[in-house]
Write a structure and sequence with these properties.
Elements: H1 7-15, H2 23-28, H3 37-42, H4 44-55, E1 59-60, E2 65-66, E3 84-85, E4 127-128, E5 135-136, E6 148-149, E7 156-162, H5 164-172, H6 178-186, E8 199-208, E9 219-223, E10 229-241, E11 248-254, E12 297-303, H7 330-335, E13 338-339, E14 345-346, E15 370-371
Parallel strand pairs: 4-6
Antiparallel strand pairs: 1-2, 3-7, 5-14, 7-8, 8-10, 9-10, 10-11, 11-12, 13-15
Length: 385
């Protein structure tokens, strides 16, 4: 999914101060996250794999960063798992139930850093059917995680996490509560603008019952109330990064998800599959995945704009995270993340192409909503007590 090269001038004009080429550095130091607008726009599939490797690098848990001394694929927490959780009840949440400041980046809920692997808790996503015209009420959605549509994810657990750049912006702008967001609406801001390098991760896990699967999945242990522990494996990972004005969207899945024809949309990976139609659904070579659990994951595709060079709406979805694939689009759904002066906003909708302008305006063509810069996580904010 590509855009016209004419967009490059706009993208670079907006991001030249914060984005630099790191291709050589990334090859030598793959744990370092890339930030390269041109590569993200023109070679987005290769760029997506660089992001994937960096974010799944073994973590220095206390510092919430990559541990370059550990080989890729080492068991344990990876970088994105140390990021702050958007679930209001999580100990390391960004959005506290009382709307208060969530504290320093390395803190949260108590002394020292809190990370997912040590405090993991999954909550099933509710089954909902919504349209783009439905309003999101005040306060967090059910259990603080994104709802699924039409059908539940079988035996699945979801989580959403934000990196330090996103977290710092939310703290500085006081977007961690509804009052702070409404203040921005009343200031006349039409769209929030997160800084470059902002990243959001959405992950889905399922319980593993076969011991041998631990060699094929990135996994974690989940403690249950009776003192027992379960092993859960990562099945899907959605990554969005603001390396482009409208973000770069990339989605990965474990190859096991393809069983039974579950992938309605074919994968598109021009890096791993250099020959058209780019849907070989093979693992790329030469990026250090061979012989690790990560060789079992596939890039399902990337997305850089609402439409392609012919004006045809682009599609990108995930069989585990969105459930509806053939008529959904990451960028369009996230464009509906909004809030109005009353604290409500447009709800989730699986549509493709640019959302209709009328969805954001009233009958007098006056703006109703402030867009949250594609950041659904902000809808987890509560009122300040």
């Amino acid at each position: 999914m590509r855009v016209d090269r004419g967009m490059l001038g706009i993208a670079i004009a907006l991001f030249v101060g914060a984005s630099s080429s790191v291709h050589a550095q990334q090859s030598a130091e793959p744990w370092k996250e890339p930030q390269d607008t041109a590569a993200a726009l023109f070679d987005s599939d290769r760029y997506a794999w660089k992001v994937f490797v960096a974010l799944n690098w073994p973590a220095n848990v206390a510092g919430k960063q990559a541990d370059s001394a550990k080989p890729f694929g080492t068991p344990g927490s990876v970088v994105w798992e140390t990021w702050r959780n958007v679930r209001p009840d999580a100990p390391d949440t960004v959005f506290r139930r009382d709307g208060a400041d969530p504290g320093p980046w390395l803190g949260g809920g108590g002394p020292g850093p809190v990370v997912a692997r040590e405090e993991r808790e999954f909550v099933r996503a509710p089954v909902k059917k919504m349209t783009g015209f439905a309003l999101r009420p005040r306060g967090p959605l059910s259990a603080g995680i994104s709802p699924q549509f039409d059908e539940p994810v079988a035996d699945g657990g979801n989580e959403v996490r934000l990196n330090e750049t996103a977290y710092t912006f939310i703290k500085e702008k006081e977007l961690f509560n509804i009052e702070g967001q409404i203040k921005k609406v009343n200031e006349g801001i039409e769209i929030l603008k997160f800084p470059p390098n902002t990243k959001e991760i959405k992950a889905t896990w399922r319980r593993l019952t076969n011991e041998a699967d631990k060699n094929r999945y990135h996994w974690t242990e989940v403690a249950r109330g009776n003192g027992s522990k379960e092993v859960w494996g990562l099945t899907a990972l959605h990554i969005s990064t603001k390396v482009l004005p409208n973000w770069l969207w990339m989605t990965f899945e474990h190859i096991d998800n393809k069983q039974g024809g579950a992938w309605e949309l074919k994968s598109v990976d021009r890096f791993a599959c250099p020959t058209a139609p780019y849907d070989c659904e093979q693992a790329p070579s030469g990026i250090g995945r061979q012989g690790t659990k990560w060789e079992n994951y596939r890039l399902r595709g990337t997305q850089t704009d609402f439409v392609d060079t012919k004006g045809v709406a682009t599609k990108l979805a995930n069989s585990k995270l969105e459930a509806i694939q053939a008529r959904s689009s990451c960028i369009t759904c996230h464009a509906l993340a909004t809030i109005d002066k009353n604290g409500s906003g447009l709800n989730f909708a699986f549509v493709v192409g640019p959302p209709p302008t009328d969805w954001f305006l009233n009958q007098n063509r006056e703006r109703l909503f402030m867009q949250l810069d594609f950041m659904w996580a902000l809808t987890q904010a509560s009122n300040r007590n």
